[in-house]
């Protein structure tokens, strides 16, 4: 195991994904939850020194003051999580809730000041609990993509704008990412929000010597696509079209009903498919808000391909699941793996963690089987590097 405790600082700490992950961490520590769905609990990682579940301490930022235990009970009432599990970890959830801070605002100040306030909260959390490190994970609602600005391409112009009072240039996801980097914390962007995707910021994590991973967690429909698409290519079949439809309710459904917010999500979901099959494949995709579905997400895909002697092949898939329970184990995995990366002295984007994402930073690989092999190989090599660093 890693020595010392690791903090997880969730951006969107009272949202469905973070709440589900926090319940899971508490349940794993208490021994009332099995590690089903956790990649890092598989036998392939037995020789990798990962931080233990009982050594993970959770806090975070949110804009919603609703108590975490109340949020957990709502998820249980909706059928996602057994009510008995929530009650079994209720005291732990209340302890976490005391570590969640409202996102600090500086209405008359600069965005640089707001970044510093967010970073101060992360540092304070680390110091208060004597943590070895804090991994910051953004699981907040998807933001609309900001309009391009000259400052986004010039670090000096960007820094000047950030110092100006009353100027709101960067979206919240980017402010949180810069706060994480400024606090020396490994950072995960689990959303399609722009975060550190602004060109002028591409090198900041490496400069700060912190490891980062992103972007947009691969949990359901896209996961299935990255398994199936290489099959068609490997067998020499030509995919003509791959159409998809997503139905979901809850907070994600409401957020993605906004055409501006859904734009980045649609682009992220289709990008890997085009990389695997080619850009001549027709890929219509839409996401519909169906409030009565709550947190259950249903994805339909229709694949039309061409086989030998011009024969046509059709594949139809249906994927239905609670999206938050698909995402939650992945963010726990990412916290453990980035803690290892930080322990080994790695910095900047970790390409091998692209296994977890639709639009992986630092990697053009989307085929799931290859990503899985690369992840395990990386974890074992990083474990060796960590041991060497400790000896040195």
From TrEMBL:
UniProt xrefs under Pfam families: Inos-1-P_synth (PF01658), NAD_binding_5 (PF07994)
Domain Myo-inositol-1-phosphate synthase GAPDH-like: residue ranges: 220-324
InterPro entries: Myo-inos-1-P_Synthase, Myo-inos-1-P_Synthase_GAPDH, NAD(P)-bd_dom_sf
UniProt cross-references to Gene3D superfamilies, sorted A to Z: Dihydrodipicolinate Reductase, domain 2, NAD(P)-binding Rossmann-like Domain
PANTHER family tied to this protein: MYO-INOSITOL-1 PHOSPHATE SYNTHASE (PTHR11510)
Family statement drawn from the similarity comment of this UniProt entry: Belongs to the myo-inositol 1-phosphate synthase family.
Protein name per the record: Inositol-3-phosphate synthase
Organism: Agromyces aurantiacus
């Amino acid at each position: 195991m890693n020595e010392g405790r690791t903090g997880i600082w969730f951006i969107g700490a009272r949202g469905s994904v973070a709440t589900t992950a926090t319940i899971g961490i508490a349940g794993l520590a208490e021994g009332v939850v099995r590690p089903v769905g956790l990649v890092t609990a598989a036998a392939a990682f037995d020789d990798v020194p990962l931080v233990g579940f009982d050594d993970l301490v959770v806090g975070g930022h949110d804009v919603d003051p609703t108590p975490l235990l109340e949020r957990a009970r709502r998820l249980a009432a909706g059928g996602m999580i057994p009510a008995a599990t929530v009650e079994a970890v209720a005291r732990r959830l209340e302890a976490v809730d005391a570590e969640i801070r409202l996102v600090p605002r500086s209405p008359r100040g600069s965005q640089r000041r707001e970044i510093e306030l967010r970073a101060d909260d992360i540092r304070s959390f680390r110091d208060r609990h004597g943590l070895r490190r804090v991994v910051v994970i953004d699981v907040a609602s998807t933001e609309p993509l900001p309009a391009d600005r000259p400052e986004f391409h010039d670090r000096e112009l960007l820094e000047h704008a950030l110092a100006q009072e009353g100027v709101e240039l960067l979206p919240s996801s980017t402010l949180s990412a810069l706060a994480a980097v400024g606090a020396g914390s490994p950072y995960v962007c689990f959303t399609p929000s722009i975060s550190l995707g602004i060109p002028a910021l591409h090198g900041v994590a490496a400069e700060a010597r912190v490891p980062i991973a992103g972007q947009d967690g691969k949990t359901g429909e896209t996961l299935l696509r990255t398994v199936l698409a290489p099959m068609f290519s490997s067998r020499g079949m030509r995919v003509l079209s791959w159409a998809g439809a997503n139905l979901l309710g809850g907070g994600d459904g409401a957020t993605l009903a906004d055409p501006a917010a859904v734009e980045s999500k649609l682009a992220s979901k289709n990008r890997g498919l085009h990389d695997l099959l080619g850009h001549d494949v027709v890929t219509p995709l839409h996401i519909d808000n169906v409030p009565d579905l709550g947190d259950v997400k249903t994805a339909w895909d229709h694949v039309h391909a061409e086989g030998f002697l011009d024969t046509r092949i059709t594949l139809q898939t249906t994927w239905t699941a609670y999206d938050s329970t698909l995402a939650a184990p992945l963010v726990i995995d990412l916290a453990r793996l980035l803690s290892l990366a930080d322990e080994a002295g790695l910095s900047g984007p970790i390409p091998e963690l692209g296994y977890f994402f639709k639009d992986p930073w630092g990697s053009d690989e989307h085929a799931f089987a290859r990503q899985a092999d690369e992840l395990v190989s990386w974890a074992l090599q990083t474990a060796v590097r960590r041991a060497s660093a400790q000896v040195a």
